[in-house]
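Title: Comparing notes on inverse folding

I've been comparing how different people in this forum approach sequence design from structure. To keep things fair, I'm posting one structure and asking everyone to reply with a full sequence. Here's the target:
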């Protein structure tokens, strides 16, 4: 049951999205999830939370490494590298 009609707190938003409460706080602080900070609590409008859920794509873990250790020419030359 929401604390205020039309709003979720962090715990309720986390349960709704299936994410950890700290992730919800981080999204609110960064502005990726529109929310209002009232006293010491974040309040998130239910409609905004539904919009966020429809467009959110979770990126877990490290970013993919893009640095290549060898050039394409080195890989196809057949030489061995120690």
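Reply #1:
Here's my take.
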């Amino acid at each position: 049951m929401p604390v205020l009609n039309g709003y979720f707190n962090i715990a309720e938003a986390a349960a709704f999205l299936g994410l950890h409460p700290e992730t919800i706080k981080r999204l609110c602080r960064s502005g990726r999830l529109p929310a209002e900070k009232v006293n010491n609590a974040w309040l998130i409008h239910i409609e905004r939370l539904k919009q966020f859920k429809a467009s959110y794509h979770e990126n877990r873990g490290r970013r993919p490494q893009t640095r290549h250790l060898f050039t394409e020419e080195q890989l196809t030359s057949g030489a061995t590298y120690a």
